[in-house]
Amino acid sequence: MTEPAANQAGPQTAAPPLPPLPKLLVGQKALVTGANSGIGKAVALALAEAGADVGVNYVVNPDEAEAVAKTARGFGVDARIYQADVSNEAEVEKMFASFVGDFGALDILVANAGLQSDASIATMTLAQWNKVLSVNLTGQFLCARAAIAQFRKQGDSRRVSRARGKIVCMSSVHQMIPWAGHVNYASSKGGIMLMMQSLAQECAPDRIRINSIGPGAIRTPINHDAWATQAAYDNLMKLIPYGRIGEPEDIGKVAAWLVSDYCDYIVGATLFVDGGMTLFPGFATNG
Ligand code: BGC
After folding, report:
1. Which among 87, 88, 113, 136 has the fewest CB atoms less than 10 Å away?
2. Is 276 left (phi over 0), alpha (psi -120 to 50) or beta?
3. Residue 78 Cα, ligand 1 centroid: separation in angstroms?
4. 226-273 pLDDT, tens digit each
5. How many domains, the chain?
């Protein structure tokens, strides 16, 4: 096999690391849900690299969450772990209360926790539908509601950012690309789009900035089968004009930038970070 070119990746070859982040978020307190692995982990580490103190939310695997917190502390920030199922109202409320008790404030929420439970419509159970909608959509609603209440309570007392608070909803290219065999997941992400936009409209007058990131195919356990073998990877590349899979860091660093004051005027936007997946690459040679 030939060596991948400078910015390329492969089934077992990650793209080279991105440049280090400047300290854009010093003094800010950030909570990231689903942060013990995958995209959430990369987001928590990027926020820490940018100088924010971070809360690492997880449901199972406290050891993984603690390892993320430990790596985050290596950037010279405080980091703690919080167990909560984001689809459980009482657990979410308790997590936000504990976070504010520990850190004294909340400046950033990245509502990232999400899952897939794939099935064709002929075989998808109501339990599969409800589980994905509960975690992916209701979970983001519960966390956003708690964060907004805290931002409003803090008012202008925080002096760390132009906005009174920032929320990033982790959406997907599948908020706009239909996905056969994944109707629960695509519906949850389509729901996130209008939830985010409606909340952004409602809360912008309070100087609360709410946006989404729409990742494409990122190398994480959720889509392992789509990239782990050369054949699967080659097939996936038909959907990605930029010619490589995304790495978790591709999302983490964008999230850190999006919540920084460089993006103070970005309100209610979805930033697709997908190597061009949403460019309908099939049309490059057809139509
Ligand atoms: C899904 C992945 C998928 C990607 C692109 C993501 O939202 O979680 O499984 O590879 O979209 O289709």
Report:
1. 88
2. left
3. 31
4. 999 999 999 999 999 999 999 999 999 999 999 999 999 999 999 999
5. 1
Residues spanned by the domain of 147: 29-283
Separation of CA 239 and ligand 1 centre (Å): 11
173 lines ligand 1 (CB under 6 A): yes
Residue 95 domain-assigned (yes or no):
yes
Of 185, 233, 262, 265, catalytic: 185
Structure confidence by residue, pLDDT tens digits, 154-186: 999 999 999 999 999 999 999 999 999 999 999
At 64, list the tokens: 């993984």
Does ligand 1 have an atom closer than 6 angstroms to the CB of 217? yes
Any domain includes 20: no
In a domain, 6, yes or no: no
pTM: 0.97
Nearest C-alpha to atom 4 of ligand 1 is from which residue? 217
Distance separating alpha carbons of residues 170 and 142, to the nearest angstrom: 14
Q: Give, using CA atoms, the residue closest to atom 5 of ligand 1.
A: 217
Report CA-CA distances (Å) from 151 to 46, 146, 192, 204.
22, 9, 20, 12
CATH code (residue 122): 3.40.50.720
Of 164, 169, 117, 161, the closest CA to residue 142 belongs to 169
Q: Please report whether residue 21 resides in a domain.
A: no
